[in-house]
Structure prediction request, 370 residues.
Amino acid sequence: MSFPRIVARGAPFARGEQYGAQARSRIEHCIRCYQALFVLRAGLDWPTALQHARRFEPAIDAFAPECIEEMRGIAQGAGASYDNILALNCRSELLFAALRGTRRVPPGECTSFAVLPAASANGHLLIGQNWDWVPFAREVSVLLTVERDRKPGFTTVVEAGMLAKVGFNTAGLAVCTNTLVSTTDTAASGVPYHIILRRLLDAETFASAKDLLTSTERALSANYLIGHARGEAANFEASAGGRETLYITEPSRGLLCHANHFLERAAAKTDSYVRLHPHSLTRLESLRKALHSGVTLDALRAALRSHENAPNGVCGHPDPKANPLQARTTVASVIADLTAGEAWITSGPPCTRDYETVRISGLATALSLP
Prediction:
């Protein structure tokens, strides 16, 4: 089963409305699933979740008013309330901040990588990840492509109704990400995680993406692995807050890898995740072992299909005995060759699926510009 392909064009509200109309049934399903997830994992009924989500609206509007218009358009197209769409786009803040310091920290999400041209067999910039989350995420996700005249178009694998997750744009930029959970995640004000992911896909250069991350007051901890087709990549570990809690890691021997724990010593002491889920450490080590000078696309696919340390390998599968709302699975696997302008995506664990090719349209033209 492939993810449904959604294409939206035009002004922010119009393209949101197109997205909402095309993904209506998945958005409805997504809202129902998160209603249940919030109750089970965070003790939040839906009206309370909506109330909490509204607190982030001023920060979103100041940071990215276009995102407010997009969410209003999605709501209109899907026949949903705007508050429901806002809550979906604040789902991490509502879940993870509410769980701070408890033993209910959710199971792992994501193992990501970047390979600079000097370290890849074909001399290209390669980047990607396995996105792990609850099993229903596969049932509600879509492959969203947004076409725009004045900003880069982008493609993202995302839960229906949300603005962005893992993605890449026609200017040659790619965004991969890992959830981080910290004692500093106190549901404070700031820009929500998925809004930042969406805005990063506006960036035309690596420098502009870096500037956005270093100048934003964030509501939640997260890891952002950014790459650009011109041969640049870096990892940005972020605790809730501003520039003072953002830690940048450059590639080592042309390689970067990340999982769901802080690597920066200054932030590691606040880590709420790895003590309860140490498989983040083993997933990271497994991926690092697979990446070496001269890495090929086939080697990357094999690494993302790895079941080393199963059931907590890089390629994740749900425990059949677990409550589905407490289980972990690989929702999507993504590899992008930014130099060639191609990406490969699976719907579900990559060990059971073939990678489907997605062309990053317009990229070759963008890269020919001075």
Notes: The CA atoms of residues 332 and 347 lie 5 Å apart. The chain has two domains: 5-96, 111-367. The longest helix spans residues 24-42.
